[in-house]
Amino acid sequence: MKTLSAALEAHLAQPVTTLALCWRIQRLDGQVFGATNHDRDLTVGADLYRADAGATPGALEARADLSVPGLEVQGVLDDAALGAAELMAGRYDGAAVEIFAVNWADPDGGRLELLAGTLGEVRRRGDAFAAEVRGLAQALQQTIGEVLTPTCRADLGDAWCTVDLAPLTVAGTLTAVTDARRLRDSARAEAAGYWDGGKLTMTSGAAAGFSAEVSAYPAPGATWELFEPLPYLPAVGDAYTLAPGCDKRPETCAGRYANMLNFQGEPGIPGQDEILRYGGG
After folding, report:
1. Taking the complete model, does pTM exceed 0.70, yes or no?
2. Can you give the pLDDT at residue 269?
């Protein structure tokens, strides 16, 4: 049941209302993006809701059976409001979304909550974007459990793995930049393949704070190739940190990291051919 303030309840009882729709997106790092369909910016509480943000939610739907309603927020990418690079880099993935209505003549007189959830899949079409909004009931649709696998299910350095990445992580500066996927530090002297699957994090420059996984490190001092390009192009002299990766095989866990006691896989599990065997086959 929705609870309304006395002021908003009295306003809704009027034959003519002055309602505006607002949507608030709060990223996991705490930054807030606000938009409204009103013709002027609105300040609701401590947040600014921009009229020129170019974002519009689809039709709102609420169901009594706890099924997940489909809703998208569509809009135009604008670096002054919602930047393309940060959106496509995943900065808004999992962000909290609230959609509500207020009386634009009295924005702090209460609000009518319409939907709350999180941002899911984001798609880009040129200068436009469409972001899926997942309602709170989405969590009830998830299957909880683990799947047996011959390789490790943990990520290197997480609570299951327990490998301490701090002494294995190196820092340096870029000496060459081909593009946002191909970077080089000629001072790196590790053997070929040492950084395959590792995590590169930029700590200065235009891409500071962004990370990407290393796809290939072919030779000492050679150019790294990343699986995905960084959202902003780094420059020569930009600083980085680089942590090693793991291919999740038991041989790597035991031989490279001496961590077989924490291996989170089942290397002896039979494969599909063994499972489907029949007598005499």
Report:
1. no
2. 81
